[in-house]
């Protein structure tokens, strides 16, 4: 299994609405992207300075599934939106043993 984790820091403009929209779009990928085995989308409640606004934890059977997800048209639509509303993001990919 491959786990793909991404955290996002959103721009201040329309922040709450953009976070909610991104969350819904990401959750809608379940069932739309065949290689996606699970997705957990979390909204941050921490007030720490180092906190991010939103995170996703996705799981795939293997690296091939993650690669298929990366180029899937529905995922690319989400990326197009997120690129316009996020300041930056961080990613971690690892194989679960």
Shape: globular
Largest sheet: 4 strands, antiparallel
What is the strand content?
Answer: 35-45%
Q: In whole angstroms, how far apart are the ends?
A: 7 Å
Helix content bin: 25-40%
CATH architectural label: 2-Layer Sandwich
The Cα radius of gyration reads: 13 Å
CATH topology: Alpha-Beta Plaits
- Strand order within the widest sheet? 2-3-1-4
CATH class: Alpha Beta
SSE-based structural type: alpha+beta
Quaternary structure: single chain
Q: What count of domains describes the coordinates?
A: 1
Number of strands: 4
| Element-level helix/strand string | EHEEHHE
Residue-averaged pLDDT = 97
Q: How many DSSP helices?
A: 3
Model regions low in confidence, pLDDT < 50 over at least 5 residues: none
Structure description:
The protein has 97 residues and is an alpha+beta fold. The chain has one domain (2-95): 2-Layer Sandwich (Alpha-Beta Plaits), CATH 3.30.70.100. The chain is built from three helices and four strands, in the order E-H-E-E-H-H-E. It has helices at residues 15-27, 63-71, 73-85, and strands at 2-10, 36-43, 54-60, 86-95. Strands 2-3-1-4 form a four-stranded antiparallel sheet. Helix 1 (15-27) runs antiparallel to helix 3. The radius of gyration is 13 Å and the shape is globular. The model has no long low-confidence stretch (mean pLDDT 97).
Essential attributes:
single chain; 97 residues; alpha+beta; Alpha-Beta Plaits; four-stranded antiparallel sheet; 3 helices; globular
Q: In brief, what are we looking at here?
A:
With 97 residues, this protein is α+β, with helices and mostly antiparallel strands.
């Amino acid at each position: 299994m491959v786990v793909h984790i991404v955290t996002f820091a959103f721009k201040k403009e329309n922040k709450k609405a953009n976070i909610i929209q991104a969350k819904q779009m990401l959750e809608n990928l379940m069932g739309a992207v065949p290689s996606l085995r699970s997705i957990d989308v979390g909204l941050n409640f921490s007030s720490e300075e180092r906190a991010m606004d939103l995170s996703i934890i996705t799981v795939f059977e293997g690296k091939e599934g993650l690669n298929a997800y990366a180029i899937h048209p529905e995922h690319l639509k989400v990326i197009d939106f997120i690129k316009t509303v996020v300041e930056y993001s961080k990613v971690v990919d690892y194989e679960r043993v």
